[in-house]
Each structure stands twice: as C-alpha cells, then as structure tokens.
Amino acid sequence: MVYMGTQITDIESMPSGGPDASWLDRRLQTRRLEYLDRDDVEHRKRAVVRSLDRFGRFFGHHERFARLALDDVADVPDPKILELGSGHGGLSRALLSLHPTAQVTVTDVEPTSVAAIAAGDLGDHPRATVREMDATHIDAPDGYFDLAVFAMSFHHLPPALAAQVFAEGTRAADKLLIIDLPRPPAPLHIARLVAMLPLVPLVPFAHDGFISSLRAYSPSALVALARHADPAIEVELRSGGAFNSPLVPRPQVVVASWRGRQLRKRH
Ligand SMILES: C[S@@+](CC[C@H](N)C(=O)[O-])C[C@H]1O[C@@H](n2cnc3c(N)ncnc32)[C@H](O)[C@@H]1O
After folding, report:
1. Is the pTM above the cut of 0.90?
2. Ligand 1 binding site (Cβ under 6 Å of any ligand atom)
3. Where are the beta strands (DSSP E) in 62-202?
4. For the segment 193-203, what is each residue's pLDDT rounded down to a tens digit?
C-alpha cells in the first residue's frame, strides 16, 4: 500500500507504536541504548556485530535482504547501491555476489565496524567502496544512488533522526529500502519480550535484541516519520508480521521515494 500525506509537528514525542498506539503499546518502548550505540562497551559491541553476521549467514538473512534490494533495481542495468548501517558487510557481500555489475558503497556510522569491513574481502573488491557514513547525513549528491538500503538498523534512531533518514535516503537515492524488525501487537510483544528476558543479562546479542524490540517502529510510526520528513515522500509498506520468532524475524519492509524526483525524471 502506498501512503502520502501531511506533516506532523511533535515527532520526537511520537510513540514507537505510532501516533495511534494503544495505552499498552506505549508502555512497551524505551530510549535505552543498545551496546551497539554505546562507546563504553567495545567488547560487547563487537560481540553483537559478530553475532549479527553469524545469525545472518546461518538463517540466510543477508542473501534474503540482498534479493529484496535487487528486486528494487531489477530495471537498472548497472545499479549503484548504498548500504547504510552495514555493521559487518554481510548484505553488501551478498549484493555483490548476486549481481554481476552492481557497484556497492558499504557504510556504517561506527568507525571500528568500517575499519573491520575495509580490512576484509570487501576492502579489496573492485565493485565495492567502504566508507564511514551517517544515515542522517548522506555524503552524496542528490539522486546519486539508484537504491539506499538500511537493514535492521532504523530502530536505532529516535524519531527526529529516523525522519532525517527518510529525508536523506530519498534525496541521495531514487529509492530507500528500510528492512527492520517488526513491532508485534502489544500482547504478542509482551510474550516475545518475556521469552527473551532470561538471556538479556547473559548474552550481549539478547540484550540488544530486547532493546531493539522495544524500539522497533510500527507501520503507522514509519508513515508518520516519512510524512514528517517531507509530505512528498511516498511510502510503500510491504510486509512484517505478528508471529515472528526472535531468531527468524519476518522483517518489516518499507520502500520510500521522493515524488519530486519521479516527476522530474518524467519531464
Ligand atoms: C543491528 S546493526 C545491523 C547491522 C546489519 N545491517 C545487519 O543487518 O546485521 C545496526 C547498525 O546500524 C548502525 N547505525 C546506527 N546508527 C546509524 C546511523 N545514524 N547511520 C548509519 N549507521 C548507523 C550501527 O553502527 C550498526 O552497525
């Protein structure tokens, strides 16, 4: 379904469940930081990045997300793709192996992650460029990329910055693809949190997964964030689902584009 609409003003206080979130849903949110967002827990942060890569490979997330991204540039012969919040490079690696001519810019805001990616195979890949980049300030001219993809990362940003990702992603790329954790209905969300809770103090990945779940945006929140960024951003919500397991999530998929660029290209 495609949504467009008017801007809302008080975005920073919008609940993660969206402007229409229920009383219970509004209790299931946090502004607490994940290890991944902190500068004082480097060891745990690295453990989470390694786990994300391992789980992504084991459950096929990297390849699955790469196929979703490539579907969106199927009509572009040699697509230029920007990966934001790459973490470990797994998705970019899959993009490069699945598409013979795609040029991929692999980025993350976290310098240590970028250095680790650059030191590996992607650092030498002839069709990859590895760079530090903030998804809220994309260092590229308007429309430079055919696609920007931000996987399992959008929930890290509080509302005002998340809206900025919509603005920047649809400015720098023809399409912005956001793949993120789904936000289940409140009763199921509680069940998921209770199942995760025992591992939270023991396993860094579970700690971050628990916080991620509380920070995940609902479909109505995603639409409100895009509207806040610019009412001319079109948002297509593709999936997500209530019955997700923490290990095999059915992701929430959002494709956004700035309508002005489509009109400009047509004329
Ligand atoms: C949960 S990890 C996801 C990593 C990888 N995309 C995946 O799917 O496994 C979130 C990533 O988003 C990055 N991140 C957080 N805020 C960001 C921002 N403002 N711009 C770019 N990346 C950001 C973090 O450094 C981290 O690598």
Report:
1. yes
2. 36, 52, 56, 84-87, 91, 108-110, 113, 134-136, 151-153, 156-157
3. 80-84, 103-108, 128-132, 145-151, 173-180
4. 999 999 999 99
Report the distance separating Cα 146 and Cα 164, nearest Å: 19
End-to-end CA distance of the chain: 26
Contacts of 191 (CB under 8 A, 6+ apart): none
DSSP result, 162-182: HHHHHHHHHHHEEEEEEEE--
In which element (H, E) is residue 220 found? helix 219-229
CB 149 within 8 A of CB 82: yes
CA-closest residue to ligand 1 atom 22: 85
Instruction: Say how many Å lie between the CA of residue 264 and the centre of ligand 1.
Output: 32
Alpha-carbon dihedral sign for residues 88, 91, 96, 102: negative
Total H helices, total E strands in the chain? 11, 8
Interval 58-95: pLDDT, tens: 999 999 999 999 999 999 999 999 999 999 999 999 99
Euclidean distance between CA atoms 205 and 211, whole angstroms: 10
pLDDT per position as a tens digit, 209-238: 999 999 999 999 999 999 999 999 999 998
Structure tokens at 19: 């402007």
Residue 240's contacts (CB-CB under 8 Å, 6 or more residues apart) are 182, 183, 219, 250, 251, 252, 253
